[in-house]
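re the bet — no i am not wrong, look at it urself. input seq straight from the record:
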Amino acid sequence: MAVSLTRRIVVSLLCWLMTLVLFFPILWMMITAFKTEQQAIATPPILFFQPSLHNFEEILESADYLHFFANSVIVSVGSTVLGIVVGLPAAYALAFFPGRRAKDLMMWMLSTKMMPAVGVLVPIYLLFQWAGLLDSLLGLTGLYMLINLPIIVWMLFTFFRDVPKEILEAARMDGAGPLKQFVWMLLPMTMPGIASTALLAIILSWNEAFWSINLTVTQATPLTAFIARFSSPEGLFWAKLSAASLMAIGPILIFGWLTQRQLVRGLTFGAVK
C-alpha cells in the first residue's frame, strides 16, 4: 500500500514538472508582453516590475489586428470543413471497403507529413503564382486543407474502424444502403471522434506559420504572419513580439481550454468498449 502511494506521488510530481516545463515558455512570453523593451532584454531578467499595456496599444495602432484575426478564423475553419468533407468518405472507404493497396495508401498519406515544407516551397509558390492564388484566402485555405488531410483521414479511419461491423451489417439487412448507413448510423456513433478531429485540425491550421509567411503579403495574412512583422533587420523587439504572440495564440488557447473535454473524449473514443 505504501509502495503504491509513493509511486502515485512520484508520478504526480513528474507530471506536474513536465507540465511546468512545457508551459514555461508561454508563461515567460505572457510576462514579457507586459514589460518595456528595456526590461525585456535586461540581464539578469527582471521578475518584479510595473505591468504596462503600452506594447498592446502600439501594436493595435500600427496594425489592423481584427483583419489578421478574421483571416485566421476563415482559413482555419474553412480548411477544417473542407478537410472533414473530403476525409469522411475517404476514411469510410478505407475502413469498411479496403482494397489490396489500402495500407500502402495510408502509409503514403502519412509519409507526406514527414517531408520538409521548404522542399516543396518553390513548386507550390509557382503553382500559386500561375493560378493567381498568391495572397488569397482561397489558396491558403485549400493548401491548409491538403496539409492536414492525412491526419484527418488517419484519425477518422481509426474512429470508423472501432465501430463494430455487425451494426452496419444489421442495418444492411434491414434494407439500408451505404449512404443511409453512413449518415444515419456511422456519423452519429462517431461524432465525438469527428469533433475531436475537427478541433485538432483547427488548432493545426491556426498555428501554421511557414506557408502563411511565404504565400501571403497583406490581404490574406493570418495571425502567424502578423507575429513575423515584429521581427525586423533592426533587431527583435522582444516585448512587442511577445505581446503580438500573446494576441495571436490567446484566442486558440481559450478555444482549446473550452473544448478540452470534447477533444479528450474524442481522442479516447473506442478505447473502452
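see?? The chain has a mean pLDDT of 85. told u. also Residues 81 and 198 are 8 Å apart (CA to CA). so pay up
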